[in-house]
Amino acid sequence: MKKVEAIIRKSKFDEVKKALHAIDVNFFSYWDVTGVGNEKQGHVYRGISYSTSDIQRRMISIVISDEFLEPAINSILEAASTGNVGDGKIFVSDIQDAYRIRTRENGTAGIN
Question: Is 76 in contact with 6 (CB distance < 8 Å)?
């Protein structure tokens, strides 16, 4: 099992959600975040200067079985990309075990 955490542009969330649903990844958590990135240069949009590190982001957290890892990452990469600075990051980590509280199932049965 893997945990995928993606920090994406808030404006791309609906596209990412649809892409994940299309590959049968139907359960994940998300929340709004703000962070500071590596980009030091500001951008001007309609005469207003803003910093790319201050753009609202959304973090998505998914625990999936190994066979869903590559399709999930590819779906996020495709749906979240604008080709501009500040598109976000994806982090993958190992999950030792997972439990469904109601049934006490664990492992992949606990997340599916």
Answer: yes
